[in-house]
Amino acid sequence: MDKNISALLSMQGLTVLFITVIIMVGVVVILGIINSRRVSKMTPEERQKWDEEVNNELEKRKILAYELKFGKISPEYICPHCQTKGHVRTMSVERKQGISGAKATGALLTAGVSILATGLSRKEDMTQAHCGNCDSTWHF
Question: From CA 133, how far away is CA 83, in angstroms rounded?
Answer without folding.
Answer: 10
